[in-house]
Write the structure tokens for this entry.
Amino acid sequence: MKIGHRGAAGYCPENTISSFTKAIELGADYLELDIQMTKDGELVVIHDSTVNRTTNSKGRVRDFTLREIQSFDAGSWFHRKFAGEKIPSLSEVFDKFTGKIGFLIELKKPSLYPLIEEKLAEELKKRELTSGDRQIIVQSFDREALKRFHELLPSIPIGVLVKHSGVKIITNRNLKSFAGYVSYVNPKITMVNKRMIKRIHHHGFKTIIWTVKKKNDLKTLKNLHVEGIVSDFPDLS
Ligand code: G3P
Ligand code: CA
């Protein structure tokens, strides 16, 4: 699976409608996107928990209403030709792209947003996106949030994100602890080697690797038969 990181973040301002449209044009199978929650409980698509880096404003996502956050320019920081681009709500993204591509949804810092798992589960149920037919994968670094989400909607495949803090391995103990709720174990590219991919597969999990920038890495990963590759450049081949 070719997965466009924050859409096509190498070409467009990340996590915007332009970026998602571009990823589809470039032939991605999935859109990777990050969700957080506004003051009035709306799910919005943005990577950071503040708007500082990717808009012309400043402040925390959770301190703005949807209306307020959508008054900011989320395009100009990348290039002036994207001026006026907005932070999309998850609902807008589903309205526009459902049926055209799959969604790899990352619960970003869910501990900041009580009940965000419930909100996402409700949105998916409302849209009948719960059949688990590969249209949706939900991932996070936060294992407790993933367990909660899995209890709410067991049909949706779960991905656990892994990055290294010193030691570059995923232990067998880690892998065993994922049994029962995880379908994908998703390590950062810098951790990956042949043995690790073998062990992930051996424990019965699939794997999506992030974030791939170099052609050489792509080639290596294809040879390792990983299930998915996340890239800022979904046309990398
Ligand atoms: O798909 C995984 C990747 O998106 C996690 O890192 O920081 O880009 O959200 P980040
Ligand atoms: Ca992400």
Notes: The mean pLDDT is 96. Residues 2-231 form a domain with the TIM Barrel fold (CATH 3.20.20.190). Residues 5, 32, 34, 47, 106, 161, 210-211, 230 surround SN-glycerol-3-phosphate (ligand 1) (CB under 6 Å). The chain is about 30% helix and 20% strand.
